[in-house]
Automatic annotation (TrEMBL):
Residue span, EGF-like domain: 125-161
InterPro entries, per database record: EGF, EGF-like_Ca-bd_dom, EGF-type_Asp/Asn_hydroxyl_site, EGF_Ca-bd_CS, Fibulin_C, Nephronectin_domain, NOTCH1_EGF-like, Sushi/SCR/CCP_sf
Keyword set includes Cell membrane: no
Superkingdom per UniProt: Eukaryota
Disulphide linkage map: 96-123, 151-160
UniProt KW keywords: Calcium, Disulfide bond, EGF-like domain, Extracellular matrix, Glycoprotein, Repeat, Secreted, Signal, Sushi
Family designation: Belongs to the fibulin family.
Compartment(s) of residence: Secreted, Extracellular space, Extracellular matrix
The protein's name in its UniProt record: Fibulin 7
SMART domains, A to Z: CCP, EGF, EGF_CA
Organism: Cyclopterus lumpus
Principal location: secreted
Lineage: Eukaryota, Metazoa, Chordata, Craniata, Vertebrata
Membrane-spanning ranges: none
Amino acid sequence: LAHLSNKAIYLLWLGNLRYQCILLCRQYVQKLLSTQEASYLQSLRNLKKKINLLQSSTGKQTTRTINSTCPRLDGPINGRKLGRSHAVGHEVHVLCDPGYELVGSESRVCQESLTWSGQQPTCRDINECASSPCLNGGTCVDEVNQFSCVCAKGWAGLTCQTTAAAATLPAATMGPFVRPSRCTIMQGTTHCTCEPGYTISGRDSNTCTDIDECELFHNGQAGKLCLHACVNTPGGYRCSCPIGYNVTRDGRSCKDIDECATRQNNCTKDQMCINTYGGFQCVRVDCPKIPNATYVKTSPMRCERNPCPVDNKACSQTPNSFSYHYLAVVSNLSAPRVMFRVSALRPIGDTLRFSLLGGRQARRHFTVQRSDRGTGQLMLVDPVQGPATLEAEVEMSELERRVQLGRYITKVTMFVSQYEF
Ligand SMILES: *[C@@H]1O[C@H](CO)[C@@H](O)[C@H](O)[C@H]1NC(C)=O
Ligand SMILES: *[C@@H]1O[C@H](CO)[C@@H](O)[C@H](O)[C@H]1NC(C)=O
Ligand SMILES: *[C@@H]1O[C@H](CO)[C@@H](O)[C@H](O)[C@H]1NC(C)=O
Ligand SMILES: *[C@@H]1O[C@H](CO)[C@@H](O)[C@H](O)[C@H]1NC(C)=O
Ligand SMILES: *[C@@H]1O[C@H](CO)[C@@H](O)[C@H](O)[C@H]1NC(C)=O
């Protein structure tokens, strides 16, 4: 075939076809013919290519083999490949990382067939527990290149080889605060580590003991860890607050819960809710019952005397008004300090007098001073340790030429919390 010219083959075939065409239908077949011609030319080209290839390959066989390589080989995961040449006749080797074992062929050769000998190697995690290293009923936990033993009750040590009595920590204390350590044996040396928040302990470094942060940082330079109470937890700690307080966002301090604002109180409708540090108080303002006078509530916290009958001296001597104030303070508040100020809105007469009423209790904690001509102040004289409720009454009288014109009573109730925050 190769010796015939292309044109000769073409004409040979074409002539035959055309002859048949004329006999049938010229127009229809003309179309068919052009496609046939194209496809014929294409197959002829392919044929020529193949012949050329065949011819050249016979002459250049050796060159081609030397030039060829096997497919690229990557090192296995958790291992590596030694040897870079992928050419025919060359070898590569595979090594696994420590803690992994080889599965498949360690060496592979690039063969004449341009394929690698042997099987695709992989590196598999060695099961350190396979040899059952934990004794006396201990449970082995396999990890990469290491293992740890969770010992049965009464046993301790890296491989649970010693009785708990021999170990520094009895097995009975094993719990969330005492954990087994993680140990690695490398070249005959044991290296043990603990989870964060734990520290190595035990005779063989075989256990990890929880660090008591509360104890450790109790009076540390950074100050106490917690404002109120520190609770040691396995591997950590948290701060807690007394009832009536919530731990602040920083987790260290306590902030008072406003029970009055959050409806966490059970005060009735006729009571007022007073938020205190760590709690709340329900208070009810009732006007006093005093002979010869009657009082009426003019605001939730104030009572005023009804007008006295003319010439009723006993009535006109009674206080003109009572006002009520409630203060919430923390325990051990520094003193002396001003707790409350009283002044006359529209003073009449020539003199204002301020005095402290109430029994001995009031006098022990408070005193009343004038701060300016028209103002008196209730002072706390000593720090008060809570929880406590203190009451004090401040009387303000107006006088004109030493004759009393009016008396006004201010009742102050102080709720002292149990804590200093
Ligand atoms: C084969 O070898 C020739 C000459 O040595 C070189 O020019 C060519 O790039 C090589 N081909 C491959 C695929 O390596
Ligand atoms: C306080 O904490 C409790 C529970 O942790 C929560 O339900 C409540 O909303 C908190 N109150 C305030 C005022 O943050
Ligand atoms: C509110 O509840 C407390 C207990 O939580 C109880 O001691 C107190 O008497 C109650 N007060 C009222 C007004 O119901
Ligand atoms: C004051 O009240 C008492 C008892 O309520 C009564 O005996 C007395 O007469 C009254 N005084 C005046 C001046 O009304
Ligand atoms: C009260 O406060 C003072 C100083 O602010 C402090 O030294 C003292 O220990 C506190 N007392 C109590 C009982 O907390």
